[in-house]
Amino acid sequence: MNLYSKAIFLAVCLLLLSGCWNSKELDDLGIVVAVGIDKTEDDQFLLVTQVINPSEIATDAPTTRPPVSIYESTGDSLFEAFRNMTEKSPRKMYLSQLRLLVIGRGLAEEGILPSLDAFYRDHEFRTAFFVTIAKDTGVKDLLKVLTPYEKIPANKLMHSMEAVQRSLGSSKGVVIDELIGQILSKGQSPVLPGLLIDGDSDIGTAIENIEKIDAPTQLRIDNLAVMEEDRLIGWLTPEESKGLNYITGDMKSTTVSYPCGDEGLISVEVLRTDKSSKAKFEDGDPTISIELELEGNVGELDCPIDLTKAESIETINGEVEKRVKQKMEAAIKAAQEDFGSDIFGFGNLIHRKNPAYWKTVEKSWNSKFKELKIDIQVKAQIRRKGNSTQPITKEE
Amino acid sequence: MKGNKTNHITPPDAQPLHSSLDDNVNDLRTTLGNSSDFVTRLFSIHKTSAAILYMDGLVDKNTVQNFILESLMLEIPAKRPITHHLYESIKKANLPIGELSEVEDKHDLLKKLLSGDTILLLDKETKALSISTKGWSDRGVQEATSESVIRGPKEAFTETIRTNTALLRRKIKDPDLRVEAKTIGRKTCTDVAMVYLEGTAEKEVIEQVNERLDQIDIDAVLESGYIEEFIQDAQYSPFPTVYNSEKPDAIAGGILEGRVAILIDGTPNVLLVPALFVNFMQSSEDYYQRADIGTLVRLLRLFCFSVALFMPSLYIAFTTFHQEMIPPPLLISLASQREGVPFPAFVEALMMELTFEVLREAGIRLPKPVGSAVSIVGALVLGQSAVQAGLVSPAMVIVVAITAISSFVFPAYNMAISIRILRFPMMILAATFGLFGIILGMIAIVFHLSSLKSFGKPYMAPLAPMIGKDQKDVLIRLPHWGLLSRPSFFTKSDQKRVDSTSKER
Amino acid sequence: MDNQTISPRQFMFLVILFSVGSSILIVPTPLTANAKQDAWMSISISVAVGLILVVLYNHIATLMKGQTFVQATISVFGNWLGRVLLFFYLSFLYILASLVLRNIGDFMTTQIIPETPLQFTHILFLIVVIWGAYLGLEAIGRSSEMFMPWVVLLLVFFTISLSPQIKMENLQPVLSNGIVPVLETSTFVIGTPLLEMVTFLMIIPYVKDGKTKKRAWLLGTFIGGAVLTLITLLCILILGSDLTALNTYPSYKLAQKINIAGFLEGLEIIIAIIWMITIFFKMVILYYSTTVGIAQFLTMEDHRPLLLPLGMGMVVLSIIAYPDVAYFETFINETWFPYAMTHGLIIPLIVWAGLLVKSKKQTKPQHDRS
C-alpha cells in the first residue's frame, strides 16, 4: 500500500465513521400533515400542527387512541414557533409530507406573505400542499376535529377539496407556489378556499365524534376568499365562486339547475368547459372578452318537457347559457364593485397583449380594474340526456 | 494436437539413465521412496533383461496386460531372436499402442511415469520407452451442478482434461480448433490446455495468454482458480475479468466468438478470456430460448444487478434521509412498522444482510439433508420471529429477501460475489450521506469498471466504448439470423457469422 | 503523460456534460431575474456566441498540433513568459474547479443534506473526482458514455412528465423590456459555462481523429446549450419568471412539481442525480486538466502525484472561496464575466497570435526553399 492509498483510506474512514449527520430514523419523525398559523392577541405567531400517529393508522388492531395529535406553540416568528414546539412534542416535526396549510382569519386580514416565506424557504417543505383559510373558526379548533371515514383529517380535507374542484366547482385548491406567484404578479390577485366546521367544535375533538354513524361535527370546504395582494378582503358566495371558476377556466365539472314549469327543476351536468379569454384594445382602452363553451348532459329532469324534440334541447341550452352567464357576471360584479381586486388575472392578459400600456397602469391596476369592460359569451351544448328519454311522470 | 512446448520448469540437472537395468530400477525405487503403488515387473526377452514400470491406479491394467506384457513376453519370444537391435525393433514393431515416446532422462522418465505412462526399460540401454497407458477411474460426463438450464445441453466438463478437450472437439468440428498444451506446477505438473480457433481469435490475445501462462511459476495448481488469479488483469478489483464455466456449450460459444479457453486438468471449471462485464450478465441459455425471451431475461438480469447492488442502500437512504420521496401511505406504513424497533435502519440492514450471507454460506457447506433444516431456521426463525420479536421491521425483511433473490439471478457466480461485496460499502455510504453517497459510490463503480481491461479489451465494451453494431447481442439478443457478425470487441478477423440470405423466404 | 486517448464521440459527451453541469443549477435564477420571461432568448444568443468561441478554440487546437495548451504556450513564448501566462490560465482552472465544487456542496447542503458539514460533502465528492482523474482520460471518456444514456433518458422523462403543467402564456409578453436586458444577461451564460470551455484545450490533443473532433466540440456545445435553454424554458413555462427568479435552485423546484398519477411524487432526488452526474463530470474534467496542466507546467512525467495535494488545497479553497451565498451571487453576476473573459478569451487570443506567428515562421523557410 503506497502513501496514496493510505491517505485515501484514512480520509474515507474519517468520512464514513464520523457520518450520519443528517439521518433521521422513521420512528424519530413526527409526520406533520397539516399546519395552522394565526396571530395571537399579543401579536405573536400561533402555530398548530397536526401530527399523525403512524401505528394507529397502519394497524390491524386499532386502539382508542386518536390517529392524529395536535401540538401548539407560539413564537416571534414562525420558524421560532416551530422550534418552540419541541418543548411539547416528543419528536422533531417532519414537514415534507405536509398536505394542508390553514391560515387563521386574523392573520389573513393582516397579510400572509411574510408567513408564507418560511414555508417556501425551508428545504423540508415540498410545494404540493394546499393553502386554505379558516372561516369563522380558530385554526386550532379546525385542526382538532376528528373526521369519520378518513382517519387523517388533513387527508380528508385535501380529498374533499379535490372532489369539490373536480365535480362541483364552488371552490378550488390553491397550492403554495401558485399562491406566491399570484401575489407577486401585479396583474392577478389570489383567491383561497375557506374551511368551516359544521357542528360543535368541542364534540368534534372527542373520539366519540367518529364513533357515530352521523358524525355530529364535520369539516367542510367553503367558498373562495378574495384577497387583495396578500390580504383577505372578503368572501365570494357559492354562485360567485362558480362564476370565478368558469372565468379562470378551472371549472371541470359542475351542475347547473333552473326551475321550469310550476315546481319542476332541470339539472344539467356540465362535463367539460372550454374557456378562452382575450384582451382587446379599442381607442386605447382595454376590454376583455371571454368565450366559454360548455358541454353537458341532462342530469335530472322533473318537469313536463318533451326531450325528443330538438327545440326543447335548444331551450335547455339557452337557459343554461343564461344561468352560467349570470354567475360569471355576478363574480365579476363582486370583484369589481365590492372588492376591487382582480382575482381573474385580467391584468396579466393585458400585460401580455400590450406591455407598453400595462406599464402605465401597473401601479394602479386595481382601481383601473373596477372600470374594465368585460364581454362574456357562453355557448352551451347538451349532448346526451342520460338513460331515460323522457321525464318519469305519472300519466294523469 | 501439437507437441509439448518447451517446458519452462527445467530440472535441476539432466540425469541420464544408467546403462544397467538394475541400477535404473533401484535408482527409481529409491527416488520414489519405495512407494507401494510403484509396480516393477522384471522379465527377459531373448535373454535380455527388461522391466516394465508403472504406477498402480494410474494405468489401464488391461492395456498393460494385453498390449504390452503379452506382446513382449509371448509374441517376441515366439519369433526368431533379434538380439542386437532389440530396442529398435520393439519400438518399431512390437508395441501395438498409439502413443509412444522415448525418454533418456531420469526426470522426464519420472514425470511420464507419474502421469500414468508405462515405462519399458531394457538392460544395457540408456533410453527407455514410455508407453501411454493412462487410464484411471474418473467421474464420467455428468449433469452440470452449478449452472443448470431449462433448455440446452445438460452435460458438464469433468476433472479429466482429455475428456474436456474431447467435449469441445465434439462441438466444434473445425480443423482450425487448436489445443495447445502446457504443464504448470513444479510439484503437480498439471496439464493445461489453451483452446481457440485459429484465424478467429486475435493473435494478440493468444500471445498474451501464452505469455501470462508461461510466466506462472508455482508449485501446485489444483484448480483453475490458481491460474485465474495469475492471469487476471485487475488484481484489486471486486469484478472478475476471467470467465469460468463448467458447461461445454458455454465455453464452445466463447471460443466461437474468438475467445481463448483455458482447460486445467483436475477441475471441471474451464476459464475463458477475455471476459467482459456483459459476459457475466449472459447465459448460454439466452441463445437457446427464443430471441424475445432471451432479450427479456437479459434486461431482467440487468435490473436485478441494480437491485442486488443498491436495494438495501436505497432503503437506508430513503428511510433515514429522504423520507419525502416515499409516497405518503407507504411512509405511514413504514413508520408504523419501525415503531419499537431498537436499532437504526442501517444496523438493522447490516444485521439482516449478514445473517443472510451466513445462511447462504451454511446452506452451501451443509450436506443436502441438513440443508433444508437451515432454510427452515432461516425462513421461520430469522424472518418471522425476528419481526414478531420487534427486532427488525417487516419491510427490512422484504428488502433483504428481494436483494437475496436478485443476487441469485446471475448466471455467473463470481459476479454475484462481487455484488455481495460491494453492497456493504454502498450501505455504509448510504447511511452516512444518503443518496449523495450512493450516487458517488455508483459513479466510482462506473469509473472503476470503465478503467478495467481484460486481455487488452475494455471491460465495459461494447457499452463504453460504444460499438453500435455490437449492440445486437448485449442488452438485447437479436434472433440468430440477425447475429450477422461476431462481436467486434473480441475479434476483428473472421467476422462473418450468418449469411444475410439465410432467412429469406 | 500517459498515452490515453478518447474518441470524438466521448469528447462530445464530455463537452455536453461539462456545459450542462453546475450551470444548470445556477443559470436560470439570475437570468430570469434580469431578463424575465425572455431569459431563454439570452441563452440562445449566448450559445450562438459560444459556437463562435468554439470555432476559435478549434483553430487554436489545430495550431497547437497535438500539444496541450500548456505545452504549446511554453513552446511559443518560451519558458518564462509562457509560464507567466500559464500561471493565470491554470489558476483560472483551479479556482473554477473549486467554485464548481462549492456549487455542488451548496446545493447538497441547501436542499438534500442540510445538516452535513460542507467540508465533508466536498471531501467525499473530491475523493471520487480524484479517483476519476487518477484513472485517466480513457476511463473518464468511457464513463461519460456509460452515463450519457441515463442523463438523456432522465432528461426526457423530466420534460415529458412536466409537459402537462406547461403554461405557454408565461412566455408572453415577448421582449416587453426591449432587447437590452436580454443581451445584457446573455453575458452571464457566456461567462459560465461557455468561456469555461477553454479547459478543453487541455483535453483536445488526446482526442483521436482530427477532423471529426472539431465537429464534436461544436455539436457538444450546441447540444449542451440546447439543454440549458430547455431547462430555463421549462422553468419559465411552469414556474413563471417571478418564481424562477425567487428560487435559488429553480430546476430542482421544478422537479418537485413532477406528479405522475398522484403516486410518483418526490422525484426531485432522481433529477438531482442528473445534476450530480453532470457536475461530477465538469469537476473531473476541470480537475484532470488542471493537474495535467500543472504537471506539464512543472515538466513532470505523471500528473498523479499532484492529485492528492492539489485536492487538499481545493477543499480549503472551496470553503473559503466565498463566505455566503449572497456574496457568490454578486460575484457570479458582476465579477465572473470579466474574469472568465480574461482567461477564456484574452489569454487564448494571445496564445493564438503567438501560434500564428510561429506557424508563419515555420512555413516561410519551406516556401523559400521550394
TrEMBL record, chain A:
<feature type="domain" description="Spore germination GerAC-like C-terminal">
    <location>
        <begin position="223"/>
        <end position="386"/>
    </location>
</feature>
<keyword id="KW-0564">Palmitate</keyword>
<protein>
    <submittedName>
        <fullName>Ger(X)C family spore germination protein</fullName>
    </submittedName>
</protein>
<dbReference type="Pfam" id="PF05504">
    <property type="entry name" value="Spore_GerAC"/>
</dbReference>
<dbReference type="InterPro" id="IPR046953">
    <property type="entry name" value="Spore_GerAC-like_C"/>
</dbReference>
<feature type="signal peptide">
    <location>
        <begin position="1"/>
        <end position="23"/>
    </location>
</feature>
<dbReference type="InterPro" id="IPR008844">
    <property type="entry name" value="Spore_GerAC-like"/>
</dbReference>
<keyword id="KW-0472">Membrane</keyword>
<feature type="domain" description="Spore germination protein N-terminal">
    <location>
        <begin position="22"/>
        <end position="194"/>
    </location>
</feature>
<dbReference type="InterPro" id="IPR057336">
    <property type="entry name" value="GerAC_N"/>
</dbReference>
<keyword id="KW-0449">Lipoprotein</keyword>
<dbReference type="Pfam" id="PF25198">
    <property type="entry name" value="Spore_GerAC_N"/>
</dbReference>
<dbReference type="GO" id="GO:0009847">
    <property type="term" value="P:spore germination"/>
</dbReference>
<dbReference type="GO" id="GO:0016020">
    <property type="term" value="C:membrane"/>
</dbReference>
<comment type="similarity">
    <text>Belongs to the GerABKC lipoprotein family.</text>
</comment>
From TrEMBL, chain B:
<feature type="transmembrane region" description="Helical">
    <location>
        <begin position="428"/>
        <end position="450"/>
    </location>
</feature>
<feature type="transmembrane region" description="Helical">
    <location>
        <begin position="299"/>
        <end position="321"/>
    </location>
</feature>
<keyword id="KW-1133">Transmembrane helix</keyword>
<keyword id="KW-0812">Transmembrane</keyword>
<dbReference type="GO" id="GO:0009847">
    <property type="term" value="P:spore germination"/>
</dbReference>
<feature type="transmembrane region" description="Helical">
    <location>
        <begin position="395"/>
        <end position="416"/>
    </location>
</feature>
<dbReference type="GO" id="GO:0005886">
    <property type="term" value="C:plasma membrane"/>
</dbReference>
<feature type="region of interest" description="Disordered">
    <location>
        <begin position="1"/>
        <end position="22"/>
    </location>
</feature>
<dbReference type="Pfam" id="PF03323">
    <property type="entry name" value="GerA"/>
</dbReference>
<comment type="similarity">
    <text>Belongs to the GerABKA family.</text>
</comment>
<protein>
    <submittedName>
        <fullName>Spore germination protein</fullName>
    </submittedName>
</protein>
<keyword id="KW-0472">Membrane</keyword>
<dbReference type="InterPro" id="IPR004995">
    <property type="entry name" value="Spore_Ger"/>
</dbReference>
<dbReference type="InterPro" id="IPR050768">
    <property type="entry name" value="UPF0353/GerABKA_families"/>
</dbReference>
Automatic annotation (TrEMBL), chain C:
<feature type="transmembrane region" description="Helical">
    <location>
        <begin position="216"/>
        <end position="240"/>
    </location>
</feature>
<dbReference type="Pfam" id="PF03845">
    <property type="entry name" value="Spore_permease"/>
</dbReference>
<keyword id="KW-0309">Germination</keyword>
<comment type="similarity">
    <text>Belongs to the amino acid-polyamine-organocation (APC) superfamily. Spore germination protein (SGP) (TC 2.A.3.9) family.</text>
</comment>
<feature type="transmembrane region" description="Helical">
    <location>
        <begin position="12"/>
        <end position="33"/>
    </location>
</feature>
<keyword id="KW-1133">Transmembrane helix</keyword>
<keyword id="KW-0813">Transport</keyword>
<feature type="transmembrane region" description="Helical">
    <location>
        <begin position="39"/>
        <end position="60"/>
    </location>
</feature>
<feature type="transmembrane region" description="Helical">
    <location>
        <begin position="306"/>
        <end position="324"/>
    </location>
</feature>
<feature type="transmembrane region" description="Helical">
    <location>
        <begin position="260"/>
        <end position="285"/>
    </location>
</feature>
<feature type="transmembrane region" description="Helical">
    <location>
        <begin position="80"/>
        <end position="100"/>
    </location>
</feature>
<dbReference type="GO" id="GO:0009847">
    <property type="term" value="P:spore germination"/>
</dbReference>
<dbReference type="InterPro" id="IPR004761">
    <property type="entry name" value="Spore_GerAB"/>
</dbReference>
<feature type="transmembrane region" description="Helical">
    <location>
        <begin position="186"/>
        <end position="204"/>
    </location>
</feature>
<protein>
    <submittedName>
        <fullName>Endospore germination permease</fullName>
    </submittedName>
</protein>
